[in-house]
């Protein structure tokens, strides 16, 4: 997503980056931003675990916590995610920053079609019967699945989500009924 933004001019060298996260995307962006010299601001629901906040800060990100709208600590609802998304959008505008927008950024899926999928195929010698992943933004699941299916239509791809996850049912995500932070929100 960062390479794509640099290539199309959305992100300037050493320019600021902003994204909403509940963990994995934020950690990856923090490493890339540090290596490439981009200041990074991450927004996250205050309902996410304290360990995630510590990790983001340890990786060098400026972390801004959005108030938790509903639920309890450790259980982040869709409304909580929306609050963190609104904060990221506002901060990116104020900073004139590149807003990654992992849920809608087509480079999220493309990156996994071009890198993660081929890596799995190569490391297994093309012997892949099935691929199973949990869904955060759905970029990894969708990209890897597309690549593996392009290599062999017989590969079975499965989403592993808690029972009741709306993303798996193809429904709009309104209130996840599970406590896995950062999952159950993406569009498959």
UniProtKB/TrEMBL annotation:
SUPFAM superfamilies: Tryptophan synthase beta subunit-like PLP-dependent enzymes. GO terms for biological process: cysteine biosynthetic process. It comes from the Eukaryota. Gene3D superfamilies: 3.40.50.1100. Residues 6-170 form the Tryptophan synthase beta chain-like PALP domain. Transmembrane segments: none annotated. Pfam families: PALP (PF00291). Coiled coil: none annotated. This is Tryptophan synthase beta chain-like PALP domain-containing protein.
